[in-house]
Amino acid sequence: MKTVNVSLVGVGGQGIILTADILAKTAAIAGYDVKKSEIHGMSQRGGSVTSQVRFGSSVASPIIQ
Fold this sequence. Notes:
The chain is α+β, with helices and mostly antiparallel strands. The radius of gyration is 12 Å and the shape is elongated. Strands 1-3-2 form a three-stranded antiparallel beta sheet, with helices on one face. It has one helix at about 15-30; strands spanning about 5-10, 35-40, 50-55. The chain has one domain (about 5-55).
Protein backbone atom coordinates (compact mmCIF):
# COMPACT_ATOMS: atom_id res chain seq x y z
CA MET A 1 0.00 0.00 0.00
CA LYS A 2 1.13 3.51 -0.76
CA THR A 3 1.98 5.67 2.29
CA VAL A 4 -0.90 7.88 3.44
CA ASN A 5 0.02 11.28 4.92
CA VAL A 6 -2.42 13.12 7.22
CA SER A 7 -1.68 16.56 8.66
CA LEU A 8 -3.95 17.84 11.43
CA VAL A 9 -3.71 21.51 12.44
CA GLY A 10 -5.63 23.58 14.97
CA VAL A 11 -5.37 25.44 18.26
CA GLY A 12 -5.17 24.10 21.80
CA GLY A 13 -8.37 22.48 23.03
CA GLN A 14 -9.73 21.37 19.66
CA GLY A 15 -8.73 17.72 20.05
CA ILE A 16 -5.99 17.60 17.42
CA ILE A 17 -3.72 15.35 19.50
CA LEU A 18 -6.62 13.06 20.45
CA THR A 19 -7.72 12.79 16.81
CA ALA A 20 -4.16 11.93 15.72
CA ASP A 21 -3.92 9.28 18.46
CA ILE A 22 -7.20 7.68 17.39
CA LEU A 23 -6.16 7.69 13.71
CA ALA A 24 -2.75 6.19 14.50
CA LYS A 25 -4.20 3.46 16.74
CA THR A 26 -6.87 2.60 14.16
CA ALA A 27 -4.27 2.27 11.38
CA ALA A 28 -2.06 0.12 13.65
CA ILE A 29 -4.98 -2.18 14.49
CA ALA A 30 -5.65 -2.49 10.74
CA GLY A 31 -2.10 -3.81 10.37
CA TYR A 32 -0.30 -0.80 8.88
CA ASP A 33 3.10 0.55 9.86
CA VAL A 34 2.36 3.88 11.61
CA LYS A 35 4.49 6.89 12.54
CA LYS A 36 3.18 10.00 14.33
CA SER A 37 4.68 13.39 15.10
CA GLU A 38 3.19 16.28 17.08
CA ILE A 39 4.05 19.83 18.06
CA HIS A 40 2.04 21.41 20.86
CA GLY A 41 4.19 24.21 22.29
CA MET A 42 1.77 26.87 23.57
CA SER A 43 -1.38 24.78 23.15
CA GLN A 44 -2.55 25.44 26.73
CA ARG A 45 -2.77 29.13 25.91
CA GLY A 46 -4.68 28.76 22.65
CA GLY A 47 -1.55 28.43 20.50
CA SER A 48 -1.15 26.24 17.45
CA VAL A 49 -1.07 22.46 17.53
CA THR A 50 0.20 20.36 14.64
CA SER A 51 0.16 16.58 14.32
CA GLN A 52 1.25 14.44 11.41
CA VAL A 53 0.27 10.79 10.98
CA ARG A 54 1.78 8.56 8.30
CA PHE A 55 0.73 4.97 7.65
CA GLY A 56 1.20 2.34 4.99
CA SER A 57 3.00 -0.93 4.34
CA SER A 58 6.38 0.57 5.34
CA VAL A 59 6.92 4.05 6.80
CA ALA A 60 10.44 5.26 7.58
CA SER A 61 9.85 8.73 9.05
CA PRO A 62 7.05 10.42 11.03
CA ILE A 63 7.57 13.75 9.23
CA ILE A 64 5.66 14.56 6.04
CA GLN A 65 8.08 15.96 3.47
